[in-house]
Amino acid sequence: MTRVFDSEVSEDRFSRLRLISWWDQEKIAKCRLLVVGAGALGNEILKNAALLGFTQVVVVDLDRIEESNLSRTVLYRSEDVGRFKAEAAACAYRSLEPDATVHPVVANVVHGCGLGLFEWSNVIVAGLDNREARLWINRSAWKVNRPWIDGAIEGIDGVVRVFLPGIAPCYECTLGEVDWALLQKRMSCNLLVLEPTVEGKIPTTPTISSIIAGVQVQEAVKLIHGLPTLASKGYVFEGMNHSSYVVEYTQNADCMSHYTLPQIVHLRESSDDLTLAELRERAQSDLGSPDVVIEFSRDVVQKFVCPTCKEEEELYQPVGSVPFERAKCNNDGQLRSVISLHSYSGEGELGGRSLSSLGLPLFDAFIARTAEREVAYIPHGDAPRVLGPLASE
Prior knowledge:
Blueprint: H1 15-18, H2 25-30, E1 32-36, H3 40-52, E2 56-60, H4 85-96, E3 101-105, H5 115-120, E4 123-127, H6 131-143, E5 148-154, E6 157-163, H7 177-185, H8 206-224, E7 233-238, E8 243-248, E9 264-267, H9 276-287, E10 293-305, E11 312-318, E12 337-344, E13 366-369, E14 374-379, H10 383-387
Parallel strand pairs: 1-2, 1-4, 2-3, 4-5, 9-14
Antiparallel strand pairs: 5-6, 6-7, 7-8, 10-11, 10-12, 10-13, 13-14
């Protein structure tokens, strides 16, 4: 079939995209896109996003580029080996879309990214290879009422799933007994890490990355335009026989992810500027009650205590980021007790600590609760350090 195009339609970078009847390039340009993972899938997600004209992008990844990445990643070159993936990917993105503002965040998304980053986004697209990170994104996205699109690949097979805020089933609903057993295998009974998550070792090809990431970004575009998506469903592609199908997931009535913060307040201060006690005083005034508990977004390992020599070592690091070996006492080799924190209700010297000294990531949410109400506070003074130039956009 031959199509005749209007000769008077001016040619620009996105003119062919605008020929799609429902296409709105401005919606794409205004979308705040958070991409988690800059490996094989993440490269294809970012490439597609750049070509489509997403101009406000944050890319999160902790790892550095290895030689083996070069056979599966379109954005990296030989000279990039050793660089952080997030930084190299951001540079390559800008070369594809010069009008874009792309900010790299070198961090573990589970322990190093505050809820404020998720709230900043309009859409989250993830290219990850472990359940722990997916589960954290799922719970964070629900808390701040944001959609996210998951992709997974292995060999020449893959799956795409779309999870909308407040609509079950979610990612956690899809987890079975084997998934939970693998998740729990990483943690000891005292909340320390028994073994690191194996990252980037799943066998993949650039072809399956391209297929799955293409569907992920296409679902993001549909989502932005208010079109039907794979909401709470999965698109499965089986590469050996080129078969594909859509699966529907079942809601888990006991799912822990189904919780959305009812109110989020943006504070002008940074987490350096506020102590826990000062934040609690603010919450007591806002909630009209002296009985306020400040809950953290994640548990914190406060200190180790040796049962033999009684020596204490302060840590203030997120639970799940401290290896099991660290628990051995430096004096006698005994396994030390772990003292963890989840909240603050006015006790002791803890109130004098700044929010930034608790071991939580910058730009995080602190949830103030009473028996009747709750409100989350995000120190937006942290935004420039987390979002870079995107903090002002």
